[in-house]
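Researcher: Structure prediction, please.
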Amino acid sequence: MRDYRFLQRTVITMQVFDEPTMRKLEQLTLVANRVRVGTLKGERKSRKKGSAVEFADYRNYVQGDDLRRLDWNIYARLERPFIKLLEEEEDLSVQIIVDASTSMDWPQQSNERNKFRYALRLAGALAHIGLTSGDHVTLALAGDESVNSWGPFRGRQSAMKMLQFIDGASATGITDLNRSLRRWAIRAKRPGLLFLLSDLFSPNGYQAGLDDLLSRGFEVGIIHILSHDEVDPEIGAEVRLIDVETKAHAEISLDAATLGLYRSRLEQWRHDIATYCSRRQIRYIPVTTDLPWDRLVLRSLRRLGAVR
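Model: Predicted structure follows.
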């Protein structure tokens, strides 16, 4: 029986995973439809038919690899570690970017429906699925000045450090998604399956950055996260709206007509994003934080074909 206690101790403050949920996550695999797999090979079972489990080649040892796969005879001769590759096994580079801007830290009074904490739970779940599938997983926080990243690592034994990285994360400042994604596309050594978890509130937009990722060969999925009160605000009277990032403000009368116009423009904004993504074969998944994160992963993402 697997021992999950060391992982549970790590995430007590976030209450991310309980044992039944972890077992369900470990039955899943992230799905890449177009990105090239097999540049490096690992524990992920190939979808190719008729391949045999037999020796194929060697590659250099990478931190997190199963030491049982080392060829000790070659190590004794060359004093360099090499991993045996099998024909039916292939791996995938999985990269998860979480928007860590101040706008994601909302609503600040709610931990369960806070966009940033919600995004971190999703990121942890996707990363855990990838690690236990033998994929090479990188998790990054896109902040106001730089991208703070963890990885790439692979294997279940890396899950504890991944959760520690998540548990120490915070949202602050203004994230320029175009700049962050462009820098990520330039620095990436290996394109792969990339998930962006964001509210897409970026002053300079996000489309140019996504185009840069696509031009480098990434397969991109966007989980567009909004809070319930952003999608369906309550009717008030005279209110003052303050941008939590820029501190810009506006005085408005929040009546039924104004709310109707707001909802219409929000729907059009989401539609425009979905259209842009569809034309570029980007998987677009809009979600509000009142949907439990585990239901999103275990049901919605499976139904959409993002995991299986």
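Model: The CA atoms of residues 221 and 255 lie 36 Å apart.
Researcher: Thanks, that helps.
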